[in-house]
Amino acid sequence: MISFFYRAACGIILSSGLALRSMEIDQVKTFLAVAAHGGFRRAAEVLNVSQPAVSARIQALEDSLGTSLFARGAAKLSLTPAGRTLRPYAEQVLRDIAEARQAVHQLQPSAAGALRIAAALSICTYFLPDVLKRYQRAHPKTMVTVRAGHSKEVLQMVVDGEADMGVARALNHPDIETTTLRDDPLILTGHPRHPNARVAKARLEQLETWPLIFYDRGSSDWTLTQGLFRRAGLLPNVVLEVESIEAAKRMVERGLGLGFLPLIAVAQELRSGKLRAIEIAGAEPLHRNLDVIHLRHQPLTAEALSFLKLLQTAAADSLKPYPRRARRRTARKAGAA
Q: How far apart are CA 46 and CA 52, in angstroms?
């Protein structure tokens, strides 16, 4: 059925007079991967096939269309006019195939579904529990499994088909469709009674001497924070370095130093006044997206679509910035201490 649908979809005639009559799905996917990465070697790595296989698919596709799709320059490949014309149609063909699969899948009766989720460690800790509780109430018969890891590990689990969807920081991959839930910045936080946390705003040069707590060396959070100081030619005063966000937050709560922590991890404490945020004047914000990812050409199941809706609702509700009035009230209490 899918093959028949594919042949029908490939009857589209391009404005250049080319037809997608005799393409194979793998040829189309390979064409889009080479176009996205500008070379056969990188496309082969992404598709997990050999470079000769990529070359053979592109050659077969060009033969079937009777024209070259890539201009082979000294630096990298670039699309020819025919290639640029083909690209949106190729993308549409794969979208149509994905929609056809989803339509067929939804016709299949099922007493109970299954949902496999991969998520970044901090998201598993601070964001998913409430979402999973709501999901379980709405879908009591669905078997849910959750695997945790760093964002790159989450991406790989989705690409390898080990997870139906992933929730992680923004990562790019030609086979991945990304839905952004919201921004999840790193925020400099401290205990309200910590001497350095009594100010609402400070310059980055001031922070250089403040006691800072870093976590998860080598992670994207660690790299972002280190880069903030490095680009300014400054060396942060790291008094503690711990393994996890939760450990860093506990140290900050006990007044041992200040830390750049994800909003997702400290939103509740900032609202209650248990922690304070310090704005860094004249420095670029440490923004990161909180994203849902899934395979581009494999549509989400009904179970996954329901979960995505809950994620979007939870992101809008639970990650709202803490009120300004609460911040002023916390500042007055800290000053009186």
A: 14
Each residue's pLDDT tens digit, 48-68:
889 899 999 999 999 889 999
CA 333 to CA 329: how far, in whole Å? 6
Strand partners, 229: none
Length of the chain: 337
Residue range 134-153: average pLDDT? 89
- For 246-276, the pLDDT digits (tens) are 999 999 999 999 999 999 899 889 999 999 9
Say whether 60 sits in a helix, a strand or coil: helix
Compute the distance between CA of residue 236 and CA of residue 164 in angstroms, rounded to an integer. Answer: 40
CB under 8 A, 24+ apart: contacts of 76-81? 76/38, 76/39, 77/34, 77/38, 77/39, 77/40, 78/38, 79/35, 81/16
Asked if residue 326 has pLDDT above 50, the reply is no
Residues 292 and 311: their CA atoms lie apart, in Å, by 9
Residue type, position 120, single letter: A
- Domains of the chain in start order, with CATH, are 2-107 (1.10.10.10), 114-183+289-318 (3.40.190.10), 186-286 (3.40.190.10)
Query: What are phi and psi for residue 7, nearest 5 degrees?
Result: -65, -35
The residue ranges of DSSP E strands in 227-322, in sequence order, are 238-242, 258-262, 276-277, 279-281, 289-295
Residues 259/237, Cβ–Cβ less than 8 Å: no
In this structure, what token pair is assigned to residue 57?
């698919």
Position 284 scores a pLDDT of 81
C-alpha 77/C-alpha 41 separation (Å) is: 11
Q: Between 306 and 12, where is the model more confident?
A: 306
Predicted pLDDT at 333:
42
CA atoms of 60 and 41, how far apart (whole Å):
17
Pairwise CA distance, residues 79 & 82, whole Å:
8
Short-list 78, 146, 101, 116, CA closest to 4? 101
Q: What is the mean pLDDT of the chain?
A: 81
